[in-house]
Design goal:
With 164 residues, the protein is mainly alpha-helical. It is 53% helix and 5% strand. It is built from four helices and two strands; from the N terminus they run H-E-E-H-H-H. It has a two-stranded antiparallel sheet. A hairpin with a 2-residue loop joins strand 1 and strand 2. The two termini are 35 Å apart. 10% of the residues are buried.
Length: 164
């Protein structure tokens, strides 16, 4: 296990499972955030996404993700409600319906929301888990670099001059 700052020494086996579950959740959110940032920045599907501004009218969001974020939050309570409901449904799925629970004695800290089983003896599933966590760690670094590039121009050398 990769543990450069010694977090595995902080608690019990269940603490490590909780740490792993947190890392998996944050990785998955970062992968979606990175995809969303790139999608919005490059104006896929004919420009930015559209959102309702008044009954029967749609306005286009900015292709700069932080500006688009500000536009969405100005809409009122609906964006907040959508986010909290989505998070609530995902948390309900991970805490109540996934068996075995990631914190149980049979669990390993991995949140298997799609019920992926391994019929080939464990090596293939272990490889998929390693790939997911590595890609998730990279996505966490990626979304942080996109944000830093947008807030502090020139702070990320490879992203200078891009519409971020």
């Amino acid at each position: 296990m990769w543990d450069p700052i010694g977090l595995s020494d902080l608690g019990s086996e269940s603490t490590l499972k909780w740490f792993r579950a947190c890392e998996v959740k944050h990785s998955r959110v970062a992968m979606l955030a990175t995809l969303g940032w790139v999608h919005q920045s490059f104006g896929c599907f004919g420009g930015g996404l559209y959102f309702p501004t008044a009954p029967g009218t749609l306005s286009q969001l900015s292709t700069k993700p932080l500006e688009a974020n500000a536009q969405v939050w100005d809409m009122g309570i609906l964006p907040y409600l959508q986010i909290f409901l989505t998070i609530g449904i995902l948390e309900l799925m991970t805490e109540a319906t996934v068996k075995p629970h990631y914190m149980s004695s049979e669990g390993d800290g991995w949140i298997n929301i799609f019920g992926v089983s391994n019929s080939k003896g464990g090596a293939e599933l272990a490889s998929l888990k390693a790939k997911e966590i590595k890609n998730g760690r990279l996505a966490m670094i990626g979304i942080a670099s996109f944000y830093c590039s947008a807030v502090i121009p020139g702070s990320v050398p490879g992203l200078a001059g891009m519409n971020m």
